[in-house]
Amino acid sequence: MSERILDFLRRRQTDGPCVVVDLDIVRDNYAAFANALPDTSVYYAIKANPAPEVLNLLHELGSSFDCASVGEIEMVLATGAAASRISYGNTIKKERDIARAYALGVRLFAVDCVEEVEKIARVATGSRVFCRVLCDGIGAEWPLSRKFGCDPAMAPDVLERAHCLGLEAYGVSFHVGSQQANLWAWDLALGMAADVFNEMSRRGIELKMVNMGGGFPTRYLKDVPGVPSYGEAIFHALTKHFGNRLPITIVEPGRGMVGNAGMIEAEVVLISRKSSDDELRWVYLDIGKFHGLAETMDEAIRYPIRTPKDGDETAPCILAGPTCDSVDVMYEKTPYELPVSLSIGDKVLIEACGAYTTTYSTVGFNGFAPLASHVI
């Protein structure tokens, strides 16, 4: 728990829920990735938290950036970062957005099908493309779906088509799933990448780069390995599958870069029961799924919650948000242990909220203001 954040909250004058991000923690996280993977470029996935202060700091530290839209590309360029430090990593792009990114200087694009390659060839001549392949996501708390990536056996055809259309078939990418606790998840994925490299070489095309994606976790309620452990496991897998001919490598930490740097302060709005013999309390906060806690969907991410009554007797409760929508319930399948003495009006602290909170907050559902954000 960041003392700097706690001090900020003690002095805060405004009301309502807010997230506070400590840049000192972001700086430490960047150093951890740089030290654990010294020969790998860091491309921060800015969708996790695009606060200008975060982007400016990472630009100063030398980070590159993974962007999902033209809007994100423009955010990065506003820091003064060169377009050469940007990857347009979304595999689903409008042709006019590709053209706009190209006009802004971006030359690195993700693809996962021939149709996307053809769009890039039409409006972004000579660009580098890398093909994303599917991973099973085993070991991840938030496995990614089949929406992005192609079967590894299809990747050589996609990349060969890029080559034939005058693009540079640059490499392969994958994502092992968000909040990936399995150190060896990258081993299987790098094995698939090496197979694509070998097949492309057989076809006379030499790939150069492997984008090893994100998935690096933040500690919520469970302990997770540290970045040095991931670095060691990844280096072992790289040398296992590529030997002495290591490719250029990049990683795209998002959650792992900013997750533990943020904390939300929220307020208990109501505590009630649904019947006189109901054993479970319902605890309603002034923040829910629509205002920053979307990752509680299916109770995938269970945030640590601190209260002013910690140390008192606890009992399980159902935790919900304030909106008039029945899905605005964070924890019900597995109720959350909170102090019995918790009262209406108590402030609670939700830890590890630096990633995917402001970006998942609605602009005004039910008239509630978007989640306020402060960066210190």
From TrEMBL:
Name its pathway. Answer: Amine and polyamine biosynthesis; putrescine biosynthesis via L-ornithine pathway; putrescine from L-ornithine: step 1/1
Q: Which GO terms describe its biological process?
A: putrescine biosynthetic process from arginine, via ornithine
Q: Where's the Orn/DAP/Arg decarboxylase 2 N-terminal domain? A: 26-258
Record: active site: C324
Give cofactor(s), names only: pyridoxal 5'-phosphate
Q: Which Enzyme Commission numbers does its entry carry?
A: 4.1.1.17
Give the record's GO CC terms. cytoplasm
Presence of the UniProt keyword Transmembrane in the record: no
Q: Which GO molecular function entries does the Swiss-Prot or TrEMBL record give?
A: ornithine decarboxylase activity
Which protein family is named in the record? Belongs to the Orn/Lys/Arg decarboxylase class-II family.
Q: What is this protein called?
A: ornithine decarboxylase
